[in-house]
C-alpha cells in the first residue's frame, strides 16, 4: 500500500482501509443525549425566531429544540418533518452557518449559535431509529401525478402529494433514487448509506412508485407524461456540466468534479478509488470544496482549489473554505485557467491572475502554473433543455412562479432546475413541498 | 481588607459561613475536611437521645429540581437525624473542637418532648466543649411523625417550653431552628424569644415532593415504589427564607433577636443579602453538597471584596441595613413612576420581551424590522412598569427601568409625575384612607 502513496499520476491505494474509515467518518458526529440536552438548553425560544425565517423550509426550530430539551426528541422530529420531510439529510448537509445558525440570536450574543443542525439530526435520528414513518396518507383521491427526478425536490413533492392521497410515480435517470443526496455531496456529510435509508423510510408513506433508470427525453417525454397523469412535477436538477473552454480541456485526467464525487459516493472500497497525486480543482462552490477535500482524504498529496474571483465572492461558505484549508487544501483566488498542459494527459494547468473591475472580470496577463495529474472541473452545472421543448426559461433555468408553476399548464417544477433558487438541498425540499401543495389545490379544485 | 470575623451570640468564628446541620456535618471526617477548606463553623448533624441508633432508608434519600444546564436548583431529602451512636458523635465532636478551637462548633439536638431527655443530652454535649446547641424544631419528615422536629416547631407553646428547659439546664447558647412549614413565621419566633432563646435559625427545609416518576407513578425519591414528602432546600427556597428572616427582623416582638440565616445560600452575594436582612451569620448546606466544601473560598473572598468596595469595615456595618426598607405594600410610593427602556446596542433580537408583554402583559412593546434588524421599543402609553420584560430578557442590562422625572407627564395616565411620596393609605380610591396632613 505504502508504495502507492506517492505514486505519480492517478492511482489507487494511496490510503489504507483504516485511513479511509477515519478520513471519511462523520464530519459532525451525532450528539449523545447529554450533549443534546446541553445544546438544547442554550435555545432562548425566541419570539418569531430569526432562525425560522432563515430556514428555507421554515422549520419551527425553537419548538423542536424545546421538545428535545423536555425529553421528547420524537415529538421534535415530528415538528421538523412536518415542514421538511428530508430533515434528516438537511441536518447533515445544510450550510447552517449561512442559514439558521447564522441568524441565531446567540451569534449576536456570544458568536456561538445554538447547534441547530446537530440538534435536528439528534431528533430526526431518534424518529428514524424507530423505523416507523410519522405520517399517514389521506384517503386516496384517484389522481395520478408524475414526478421526474428523485432528488430532494422530487421526493419532497412526491411525499407531500402521497400524504394528500394522490398516487405518485417518481422517475429518475440514475439506477438509485436520492439525486444529489446519493450521488453528490461529500461522503463525510452523509455516512452509513443514509441517503438510501432515508429514501426507504420516506417511501413508507405509501402511494409512491419509484422508477429508476427512467430519464426524461430518453424513456419518457413530457408530452407522454402529461397525457398519462393529472399533473407533472419536474425536479430534474442540472444534468449538464459547464465546459472548461480552454486549450487542453479535453486531455485525459480532466473530468467533472460531479462525476468524481458520484464515483466516490458509489465506491464500495474507497482505497481502491484512483486519485491524482496532484489535484487541481477549478471552481468556487460547494462542489469544488467537496471534490477537493475528498481528493485529499483519498490520499492526494497536493490539492488546490483555484477560483476565478475573490474569496468573498466564493459561493462555498467561509466554514467550507476553512474546512478545506484545515484538510490541507490550498485555496487560490482571482485566477482563471488558460490551458491544461500535458502530453497525452494532463500534467499542469496554467492560470492567469484576474481582477474584478467595472468591466467585469479581466485577466492581468500574468500567469502561473500548477502541476496537476488530475484536474476537476467544478465550474457549475447547467440545465439540459432538450427534453423541455415548450417550457419557458428564465435565464438558463425553468421559469416558475411562487408556487412552482411553469409556463405550461399542468406542469410544475422545483429544485436546482428552476430559476431563483440557491441550489441548496433545503431549498429544493421547500420548492418540492410547496409545488405539491399547489398541485393538490389545483387537482382538488377541478 | 474587611474584617469578616463573626461573633454570633458569643460564639466566635473566623468568618460568618457555617455549615448547617445536615449530611455534610454528620462525621468527624467531613467536619475536619470542612474546617480545612475554610468554613468558619459547623452545626453538627442532629443528635438524638441515647438508645438504639436511628434507622434510615436504604434507597435514595434525595430528590432534585434542575435548572438550566442541569444546575441543582432545589434538593429534597428524606434523611433522618444522625444514625450513628450518640457516644461516637460526642467523642468526635470533642476531638474536633479540641483541634479547631477557633471554629464555631454548635450541636444540633432533637429528643422527645420531655424535660429529662433534654437535660440528659445537654449535659453530655456540654462535656464535649461545644460552643452551643441548636434545637431542631424543623425537620418535616420522619421524625415529625414521632412527635419531634417540625411537629414541635409547628406549635409555638412547645417551642417556648422546650427552649425554656434548655436554657434552664445548660450554660450554652441556645439557637432555635425554625420550620417554614407554618403560616406565619413570627409566631414560632416569638415563642422562641419568650422561652429565652439566644437566637433563631431559619429556615429548615420545606415539605415537598420534587417530582413524580411517570413510569411507576410514585413520588421522587422513590423507595420500592413509594415516596414520602421530604425537606426542600437549595437556591429555590432562598426567596422564602429571605422573607421569613425579614418578617422576624422587623417584627417589634422579635426585633433584635439574633438570626442565623439558612436557605439556599450559594454565593457570597446570597450571604450578604441574608445579613442585610438582619442575620448575624449564615448556614450553608446544598451549595456544599452540590459543589463540595471549596465553595466557601469564593464566599469569603467575594464578601470581603464587596465589603471593601462598599466601605463596610466589618459585618456589623451592613447587618440589618435592608430591614427598615422591608415594608407593607400599602406604604409603597405610588408616585414612583418608571418605564422600561430597551438598549438596542445590547439587544440580541430574541423577542422574548415582546412575547411576554404582548401575550401576558400590557402590549407595551412594539416590534418592527429596520434595515433587516428587529427593533423592540417600549410604548410608554401602555407600559405599567411591571418589569416582566427585564426579567425575561436573556441579556443583563439590556432592558432597564428608568424613573420619570418629577414634572414630566406619564403618557399612560396623562398625570404629571410628582416627587412627593403618596401611597395607598392616602389614595382617594382607598375607603379606609387617612386624611393627608
TrEMBL record, chain A:
GO MF annotation list: iron-sulfur cluster binding; oxidoreductase activity
Record-linked InterPro entries: DPD_II (IPR028261), FAD/NAD-bd_sf (IPR036188), FAD/NAD-binding_dom (IPR023753), Helical_ferredxn (IPR009051)
Domain FAD/NAD(P)-binding intervals: 144-432
PANTHER family according to UniProt: GLUTAMATE SYNTHASE [NADPH] SMALL CHAIN, GLUTAMATE SYNTHASE [NADPH] SMALL CHAIN-RELATED
Highest classification ranks of the organism: Bacteria, Pseudomonadati, Pseudomonadota, Alphaproteobacteria, Rhodobacterales
SUPFAM superfamilies for this protein: alpha-helical ferredoxin, Nucleotide-binding domain
Protein name according to UniProt: NAD(P)-dependent oxidoreductase
Domain Dihydroprymidine dehydrogenase: 21-130
TrEMBL record, chain B:
PROSITE patterns, per database record: 4FE4S_FER_1 (PS00198), 4FE4S_FER_2 (PS51379)
Reactions performed catalytically: 5,6-dihydrouracil + NAD(+) = uracil + NADH + H(+); 5,6-dihydrothymine + NAD(+) = thymine + NADH + H(+)
Keyword Oxidoreductase: yes
UniProt GO cellular component terms: cytoplasm
Top-level enzyme category: oxidoreductase
Coiled coil: none
SUPFAM superfamilies referenced in this protein's UniProt entry, alphabetically: 4Fe-4S ferredoxins, FMN-linked oxidoreductases
Domain 4Fe-4S ferredoxin-type, first and last residues per copy: 338-370, 374-404
Alphabetically ordered keywords of this record: Iron, Iron-sulfur, Metal-binding, Oxidoreductase
Bilayer-crossing regions: none
Disordered: annotated segments: 410-437
MF GO annotations: dihydropyrimidine dehydrogenase (NAD+) activity; iron-sulfur cluster binding; metal ion binding
The EC number(s) this enzyme carries: 1.3.1.1
Recorded superkingdom: Bacteria
Reported function: Involved in pyrimidine base degradation. Catalyzes physiologically the reduction of uracil to 5,6-dihydrouracil (DHU) by using NADH as a specific cosubstrate. It also catalyzes the reverse reaction and the reduction of thymine to 5,6-dihydrothymine (DHT).
Assembly and binders: Heterotetramer of 2 PreA and 2 PreT subunits.
Family in the record: Belongs to the dihydropyrimidine dehydrogenase family.
Name used for this protein in its record: dihydrouracil dehydrogenase (NAD(+))
Species name: Thermohalobaculum xanthum
Gene of this entry: preA
Amino acid at each position: 500500500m505504502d508504495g502507492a502513496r506517492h505514486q505519480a499520476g492517478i492511482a489507487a491505494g494511496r490510503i489504507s482501509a483504516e485511513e479511509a474509515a477515519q478520513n471519511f467518518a462523520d464530519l459532525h458526529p451525532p450528539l449523545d443525549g447529554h450533549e443534546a440536552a446541553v445544546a438544547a438548553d442554550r435555545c432562548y425560544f425566541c419570539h418569531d425566531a430569526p432562525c425560522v425565517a432563515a430556514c428555507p423550509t421554515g422549520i419551527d426550530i425553537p419548538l423542536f429544540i424545546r421538545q428535545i430539551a423536555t425529553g421528547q426528541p420524537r415529538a421534535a422530529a415530528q415538528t421538523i418533518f412536518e415542514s421538511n420531510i428530508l430533515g434528516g439529510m438537511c441536518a447533515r448537509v445544510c450550510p447552517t452557518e449561512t442559514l439558521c445558525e447564522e441568524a441565531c440570536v446567540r451569534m449576536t450574543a456570544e458568536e456561538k449559535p445554538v447547534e441547530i443542525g446537530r440538534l435536528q439530526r439528534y431528533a430526526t435520528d431518534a424518529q428514524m431509529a424507530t423505523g416507523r414513518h410519522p405520517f399517514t396518507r389521506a384517503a386516496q383521491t384517484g389522481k395520478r401525478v408524475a414526478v421526474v427526478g428523485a432528488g430532494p425536490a422530487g421526493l419532497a413533492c412526491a411525499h407531500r402529494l402521497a400524504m394528500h392521497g394522490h398516487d405518485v410515480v417518481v422517475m429518475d435517470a440514475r439506477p438509485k433514487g436520492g439525486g444529489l443526496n446519493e450521488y453528490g455531496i461529500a461522503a463525510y456529510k452523509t455516512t452509513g448509506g443514509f441517503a438510501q435509508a432515508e429514501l426507504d423510510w420516506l417511501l413508507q408513506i405509501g402511494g409512491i412508485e419509484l422508477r429508476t433508470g427512467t430519464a426524461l427525453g430518453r424513456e419518457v417525454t413530457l408530452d407522454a407524461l402529461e397525457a398519462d397523469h393529472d399533473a407533472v412535477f419536474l425536479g430534474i436538477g442540472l444534468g449538464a456540466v459547464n465546459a472548461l473552454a480552454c486549450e487542453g480541456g479535453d486531455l485525459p485526467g480532466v473530468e467533472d468534479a460531479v462525476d468524481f464525487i458520484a464515483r466516490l459516493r458509489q465506491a464500495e472500497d474507497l482505497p481502491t478509488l484512483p486519485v491524482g497525486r496532484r489535484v487541481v480543482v477549478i471552481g468556487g462552490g460547494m462542489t469544488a470544496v467537496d471534490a477537493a477535500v475528498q481528493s485529499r482524504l483519498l490520499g492526494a498529496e497536493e490539492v488546490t482549489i483555484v477560483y476565478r474571483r475573490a474569496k468573498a465572492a466564493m459561493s462555498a461558505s467561509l466554514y467550507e473554505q476553512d474546512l478545506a484549508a484545515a484538510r490541507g487544501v490550498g485555496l487560490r483566488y482571482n485566477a482563471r485557467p488558460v490551458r491544461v498542459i500535458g502530453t497525452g494527459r494532463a500534467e499542469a494547468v496554467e492560470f492567469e491572475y484576474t481582477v474584478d473591475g467595472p468591466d467585469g472580470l479581466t485577466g492581468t496577463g500574468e500567469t502561473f502554473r500548477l502541476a496537476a495529474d488530475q484536474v476537476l472541473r467544478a465550474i457549475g452545472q447547467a440545465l439540459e433543455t432538450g427534453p423541455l421543448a415548450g417550457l419557458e426559461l428564465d435565464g438558463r433555468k425553468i421559469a416558475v412562479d411562487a408556487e412552482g408553476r411553469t409556463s405550461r399548464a399542468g406542469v410544475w417544477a422545483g429544485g436546482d432546475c428552476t430559476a431563483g433558487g440557491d441550489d441548496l438541498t433545503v431549498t429544493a425540499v421547500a420548492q418540492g413541498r410547496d409545488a405539491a401543495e399547489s398541485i393538490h389545490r389545483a387537482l382538488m379544485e377541478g | 481588607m474587611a474584617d469578616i470575623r463573626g461573633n454570633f451570640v458569643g460564639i466566635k468564628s473566623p468568618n460568618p459561613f457555617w455549615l448547617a446541620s445536615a449530611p455534610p456535618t454528620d462525621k468527624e471526617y467531613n467536619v475536619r475536611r470542612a474546617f480545612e477548606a475554610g468554613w468558619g463553623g459547623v452545626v453538627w448533624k442532629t443528635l438524638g437521645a441515647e438508645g438504639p441508633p436511628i434507622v434510615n432508608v436504604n434507597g435514595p434519600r434525595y430528590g432534585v429540581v434542575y435548572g438550566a444546564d442541569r444546575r441543582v436548583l432545589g434538593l429534597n431529602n428524606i434523611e433522618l437525624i444522625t444514625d450513628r451512636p450518640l457516644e461516637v458523635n460526642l467523642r468526635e465532636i470533642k476531638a474536633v473542637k479540641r483541634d479547631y478551637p477557633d471554629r464555631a462548633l454548635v450541636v444540633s439536638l432533637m429528643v422527645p418532648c420531655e424535660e429529662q431527655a433534654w437535660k440528659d443530652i445537654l449535659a453530655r454535649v456540654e462535656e464535649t466543649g461545644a460552643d452551643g446547641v441548636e434545637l431542631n424544631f424543623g425537620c418535616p419528615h420522619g421524625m415529625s411523625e414521632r412527635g419531634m422536629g417540625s411537629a414541635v416547631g409547628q406549635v409555638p407553646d412547645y417551642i417556648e417550653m422546650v427552649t425554656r428547659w434548655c436554657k434552664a439546664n445548660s450554660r450554652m447558647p441556645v439557637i432555635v431552628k425554625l420550620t417554614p412549614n407554618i403560616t406565619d413565621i413570627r409566631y414560632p419566633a416569638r415563642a422562641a424569644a419568650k422561652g429565652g432563646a439566644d437566637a433563631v435559625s431559619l429556615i429548615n427545609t420545606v415539605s415537598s415532593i420534587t417530582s413524580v416518576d411517570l413510569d411507576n407513578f410514585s413520588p421522587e425519591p422513590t423507595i420500592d415504589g413509594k415516596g414520602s414528602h421530604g425537606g426542600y432546600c437549595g437556591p429555590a427556597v432562598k426567596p422564602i427564607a429571605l422573607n421569613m428572616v425579614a418578617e422576624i427582623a422587623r417584627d417589634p416582638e422579635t426585633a433584635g433577636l439574633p438570626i442565623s440565616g439558612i436557605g439556599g445560600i450559594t454565593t457570597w452575594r446570597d450571604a450578604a443579602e441574608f445579613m442585610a436582612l438582619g442575620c448575624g451569620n449564615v448556614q450553608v448546606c446544598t451549595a456544599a453538597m452540590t459543589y463540595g466544601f471549596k465553595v466557601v473560598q469564593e464566599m469569603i473572598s467575594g464578601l470581603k471584596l464587596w465589603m471593601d468596595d462598599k466601605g463596610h469595615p466589618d459585618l456589623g456595618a451592613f447587618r440589618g441595613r435592608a430591614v427598615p426598607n422591608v415594608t407593607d405594600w400599602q406604604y409603597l410610593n405610588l408616585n414612583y413612576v418608571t418605564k422600561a427602556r430597551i438598549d438596542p446596542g445590547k439587544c440580541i433580537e430574541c423577542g422574548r420581551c415582546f412575547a411576554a408583554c404582548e401575550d401576558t402583559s400590557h402590549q407595551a412593546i412594539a416590534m418592527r424590522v429596520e434595515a433587516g434588524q428587529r427593533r423592540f421599543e417600549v410604548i410608554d402609553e401602555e407600559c405599567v412598569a411591571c418589569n416582566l420584560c427585564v426579567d425575561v430578557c436573556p441579556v443583563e442590562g439590556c432592558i432597564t427601568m428608568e424613573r420619570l422625572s418629577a414634572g414630566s407627564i406619564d403618557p399612560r395616565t396623562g398625570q404629571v409625575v410628582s416627587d412627593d411620596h403618596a401611597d395607598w393609605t392616602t389614595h382617594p380610591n382607598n375607603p379606609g384612607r387617612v386624611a393627608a396632613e
